[in-house]
């Protein structure tokens, strides 16, 4: 006993303290992820930021602690650092309330968590890191027989054990049962008290009083903040708020479209809601899950991956009372919350499983008529393992022979790589050859929205003509054809299939969120324009008769159909004077603001040159046509998107026309050349404009070059002087370097037949292009900045009519 009291216990006093400080560091680290995730998501960026910052701060603390241990009173400063560390946890709590909403609003998903982690977690981690070198010195001085190495090994072993205990306790017990605020407050009080007690035992009364006063002030300030936040929560209608195992869970009363609703938030994302006065879903996307009845009218077994409010599986069960419904939800408390707050009857026969969705699918042998996936409640926390080809394949294996898999994701339909939406669509289609995709907001919208994925084991439905769809009582089902995403719009080979080995979902999400706000605006996204150039190049050669030629005009028709309700494809055939072959051609025309009598025509050609006749090395090769062929098309498609979602009507109507055959027949010489599509269009102009011709036209051709210079073309100046004057005035105001005013050349192009037909038409072209009609006309010649300047000028020109 004497040995225990005099030798063993004193020997482990310092290590025991290090056990507690080590636990404090990991408590900070684990809670840091939960502190940041409501604002930046539980992504790899958040995890990496927290780990990187805390490790860097610990390293700095070790270095500073070593310097202090070498020069100062180790015993006193040991406890000063612990007390200061406790105060820094109080400061962390105060700052997180004060600054995190601002950081979340102003910083991106990639940089935001790093900056927030630097601001919040550097100081406490560095202070607790500085304790360890002092502990080594104290342990060695008190027990010299250990040696420096023995003392250091003992200290770092015990400190690491404390970190392990703090990590496990925080994740497995403290967060689910106590909550972040109480965890940090308790840790702050414990560390401050430990430090102040040690200081008092060493006679540092003045310093202890100062730190104690600061701690009391921090506790009072924290209390005021907590009371204020509780009052704000009450005013906000929050009736439940608690840290779950995976996120902060909030239930609030809110007014939605003038009706009161009860809303479930997981972190800061609205993941479910029910009206007080109706069983109708508040959010739009759950209504689409009703389309499962088209494929499986009388389902016997259904599986819901993700419970949320549990209103959707409860609604499904009410509509199919004889069915067996399994729900897999990883957050343990949500089922009880569904019964308490969201009208799920306590006597429901829903079989609830607290498991990861993929683990459940892998373990079960049950075959389901319907599998519904609703696990993506937020863009900030997407479970990547539920987006891979392996997951979709597993879900398909668990379907009955005539079963249907339906899932909801949140994404932006963007061509710019990386594209979460298009990679997911390609991945899904690789598993479900019979698949359908619906955009809840609009298939042509570039805003973040819900996208519904539907895959079957074989059953097919024509959503345009099937009477079960057209005559359905549900307006959502009747309107499915208008929400369908036509995959003819895209060339998906440029987007990676997501696999367990490669699924960079956080990277895709960050690019998506950094891609602009979620409002449709009259502006041009140069990256989107570049992406459509890339898509056209993936079709290969696009000259008359080439496979890529037909793919291109079909893609243009499908894309315009997603943006306008008035789209026409004018198809005809012509015989080539070069080889006597008959070629199929197609002009694609879309109208915007069709009620306007005064109209402006925007045009571009989409075909490419068959032979690179100006290429000294390979004149018989086809021209890729990134600039000469794809650039004008891509700009006008982005202009069309802006017109489709303009918040106000323009003063004129706009017709976007994609001309075929501008490069002439394959093998035609420059002397015998003529623009086939625009000539055909002009000759048949009354078919499209029976009463009044367009008041003006702008043809866009070869506009992606770096250091773009668009000089007025002489024929445009002669026949469309007012168009040129206004267009160049607007261009020079915004992009003076792009729009010089010196007339540089005379060019025959698609504007020529329009001018001859009496439509004042101007040509936008930079003809000083060394790669013209060569194999070097590739996308590396293009600039998103140049494309953006052209598109923005066109929009402002249209607005000024």
Number of contiguous helices: 27
Biggest beta sheet attributes: 7 strands, mixed
Return the structural class: alpha/beta
What do the pLDDT scores average to? 88
Strand order of the largest sheet: 7-6-5-8-9-11-10
Strand residues, percent = 5-15%
Low-pLDDT runs: 1-8
Distance between the termini: 98 Å
Percent helix range: 40-55%
User: So what's the overall shape?
Assistant: globular
Computed over alpha carbons, the radius of gyration is 33 Å
Total count of strands? 17
List descriptors.
seven-stranded mixed β-sheet; globular; six-stranded mixed β-sheet; 17 strands; alpha/beta; disordered N terminus; 801 residues
Your description of this structure?
With 801 residues, the chain is α/β, with parallel strands linked by helices. It is 48% helix and 15% strand. It has 27 helices and 17 strands. A seven-stranded mixed sheet has the order 7-6-5-8-9-11-10, sandwiched between helices. A six-stranded mixed sheet has the order 12-13-15-14-16-17, with helices on both faces. A four-stranded antiparallel sheet has the order 1-2-3-4. β1 and β2 form a beta hairpin. α2 (13-40) runs parallel beside α4 and α4 packs antiparallel against α5. The longest helix is centred in the first third of the chain and has 33 residues, at 74-106. Residues 1-8 have low confidence and may be disordered.
């Amino acid at each position: 006993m004497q040995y225990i009291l005099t030798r063993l216990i004193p020997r482990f006093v310092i290590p025991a303290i290090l056990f507690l400080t080590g636990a404090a560091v990991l408590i900070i680290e684990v809670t840091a992820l939960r502190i940041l995730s409501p604002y930046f998501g539980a992504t790899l960026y958040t995890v990496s930021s927290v780990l990187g910052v805390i490790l860097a701060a610990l390293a700095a603390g070790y270095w500073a602690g070593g310097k202090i241990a070498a020069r100062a009173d180790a015993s006193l400063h040991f406890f000063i650092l612990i007390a200061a560390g406790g105060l820094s946890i109080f400061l962390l709590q105060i700052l997180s309330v004060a600054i995190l909403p601002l950081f979340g609003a102003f910083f991106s998903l990639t940089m935001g968590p790093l900056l927030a982690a630097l601001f919040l977690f550097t100081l406490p981690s560095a202070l607790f890191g500085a304790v360890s070198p002092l502990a080594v010195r104290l342990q060695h001085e008190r027990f010299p027989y250990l040696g420096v190495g023995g003392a250091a090994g003992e200290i770092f072993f015990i400190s690491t054990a404390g970190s392990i205990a703090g990590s496990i306790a925080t994740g497995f017990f403290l967060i689910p049962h106590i909550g972040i605020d109480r965890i940090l407050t308790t840790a702050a009080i414990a560390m401050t008290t430990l430090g102040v007690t040690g200081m008092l035992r060493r006679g540092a009364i003045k310093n202890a009083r100062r730190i104690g006063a600061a701690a009391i002030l921090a506790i009072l300030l924290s209390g005021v903040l907590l009371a204020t936040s509780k009052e704000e929560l009450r005013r906000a209608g929050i009736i439940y708020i608690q840290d779950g195992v995976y996120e902060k869970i909030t239930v609030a009363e809110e007014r939605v479209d003038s009706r009161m609703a009860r809303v479930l938030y997981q972190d800061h994302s609205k993941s479910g809601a029910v009206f007080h006065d109706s069983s109708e879903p508040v959010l739009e996307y759950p209504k689409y899950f009703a389309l499962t009845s088209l494929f499986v009218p009388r389902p016997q077994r259904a599986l819901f991956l993700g419970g949320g409010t549990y209103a959707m599986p409860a609604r499904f069960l009410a509509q199919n009372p004889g069915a067996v419904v399994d729900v897999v939800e990883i957050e343990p408390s949500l089922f009880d919350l569904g019964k308490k707050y969201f009208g799920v009857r306590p006597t429901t026969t829903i079989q609830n499983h607290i498991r990861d969705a993929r683990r459940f699918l892998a373990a079960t042998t049950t075959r389901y008529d319907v599998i519904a996936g609703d696990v993506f409640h937020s863009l900030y926390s997407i479970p990547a393992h539920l987006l891979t080809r392996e997951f979709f394949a597993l879900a398909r294996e668990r379907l009955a022979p005539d079963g249907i898999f339906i899932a909801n994701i949140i994404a932006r339909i963007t061509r710019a790589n990386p594209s979460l939406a298009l990679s997911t669509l390609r991945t899904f289609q690789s598993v479900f050859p019979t698949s359908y995709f619906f955009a809840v907001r609009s298939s042509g919208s570039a805003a973040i929205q819900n996208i519904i994925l539907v895959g079957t084991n074989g059953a097919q439905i024509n959503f345009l003509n099937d009477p079960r769809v057209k005559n359905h009582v549900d307006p959502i089902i009747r309107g499915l054809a208008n929400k369908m995403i036509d995959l003819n719009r895209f060339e998906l080979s440029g987007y990676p299939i997501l696999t367990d080995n490669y699924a960079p979902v956080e990277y895709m999400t960050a690019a998506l969120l950094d891609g602009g706000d979620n409002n449709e605006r009259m502006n041009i996204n140069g990256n989107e324009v570049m992406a459509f150039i890339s898509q056209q190049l993936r079709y290969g050669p696009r000259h008359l008769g080439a496979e890529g030629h037909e793919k291109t005009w079909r893609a243009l028709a499908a894309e315009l159909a997603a943006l306008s309700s008035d789209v026409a494809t004018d198809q005809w055939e012509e015989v080539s004077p070069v080889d006597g072959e008959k070629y199929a051609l197609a002009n694609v025309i879309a109208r915007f603001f069709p009620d306007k009598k005064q109209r402006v025509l925007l045009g571009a050609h989409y075909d490419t040159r068959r032979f690179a006749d100006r290429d000294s090395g390979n004149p018989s090769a086809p021209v890729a046509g990134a600039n000469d062929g794809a650039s004008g098309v891509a700009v006008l498609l982005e202009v069309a998107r802006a017109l489709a979602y303009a918040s106000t009507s323009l003063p004129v109507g706009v017709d976007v026309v994609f001309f075929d055959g501008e490069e002439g027949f394959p093998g035609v010489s420059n002397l015998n050349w003529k623009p086939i599509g625009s000539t055909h269009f002009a000759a048949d102009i009354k078919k499209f404009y029976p009463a009044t011709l367009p008041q003006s036209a702008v043809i866009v051709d070869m506009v992606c070059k770096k250091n773009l210079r668009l000089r007025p073309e002489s024929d445009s100046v002669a026949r469309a002087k007012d168009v040129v004057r206004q267009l160049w005035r607007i261009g020079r105001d915004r992009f003076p370097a792009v729009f010089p005013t010196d007339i540089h050349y005379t060019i025959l192009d698609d504007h020529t037949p329009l001018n001859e037909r009496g439509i004042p038409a101007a040509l936008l072209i930079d003809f000083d292009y060394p790669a013209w009609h060569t194999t070097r006309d590739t996308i590396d010649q293009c600039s998103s900045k140049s494309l953006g300047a052209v598109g923005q000028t066109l929009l402002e020109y249209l607005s000024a009519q």
